[in-house]
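Students often ask what a holo structure prediction actually looks like on paper. The answer is less mysterious than it sounds. You provide the chain, you provide the ligand, and the output is a string of discrete structure tokens encoding the 3D arrangement of the protein together with manganese (II) ion.
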Amino acid sequence: MFKNHCCAGRHMPVLLVSVLVAVALLTVTPALAAQATPQKAVAAAAAPQAAAVKPADSDEQRIQELILANHIIADLGVVDGFGHVSVRSFSNPSHYFLAKSKAPALITREDIMEFDENSEPVDAQGRTPYLERFIHGEIYRVRPDVQSVVHSHSPAVIPFGVTTVALRPIMHMAGFLPQTTPVFEIRNAAGDDNGILVSDRMLGAALAKSLGDAPVALMRGHGSAVVGPSIRVAVFRAVYTQVNAQIEAEALKLGPPVFLNAMEAAKVDTANRGNVNRAWDIWASHASGGAKK
Ligand code: MN
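The corresponding structure tokens follow.
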């Protein structure tokens, strides 16, 4: 340590001080350690709490997105006073969340109800559910891949449910559409004397059967049911189903359109899935008034 032993003596006071400091540190260190331990314990305890505030997924997170989804589809004219969007429960996947019977633009947290696998309210608290909640419950029953369902009466879509003209993918943002979008004919399930609305489990099951493994089913003379593996994808699809329908109707006036083929549709749909959040962010901003300020 010392190159020159002759000089060590001159360093004795320094050494003494060093030893004293070391002793003092040794004396203090247990106290510091004792202080540090509870701090570490607090930090360790805080970590799960922080995770609980913003988990990767939870019922509450889904409900908050569901409220926003209601506002977005209303803001973009997919729904008006009618129509609804739901999300499957994260904690109990046989259940789902859906607002009470109310215009989507006005939905708030206290309007969100939980429904069981038979579309019965878990705790209605005096709230009246949508008559057509069976659309959601019966699709969730047979489509484990589906996490969210949008039911709308989007006027642009109706013509393709009431004519022999199929809704087909005509523009790239609607690459998710099948080459021929299925149409639910309620008369096949309930006969000529039917009420058009999907007001019970039997009719919901018939609609789900028409949907099959497709992302969209048109409902003749009524609207559509659009599904997705998340709220955001279901909303994206509901919006672009409407846009595609508008464009297809316009194109048909000009002449026979060239549609996306199955390969084009599949590839562009894969690309679009990476951009769903980009669309969601701007729609959410508009729906919450952020971009209008
Ligand atoms: Mn309806």
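The pocket of manganese (II) ion is lined by residues 132, 151, 153, 222-223 (CB under 6 Å).
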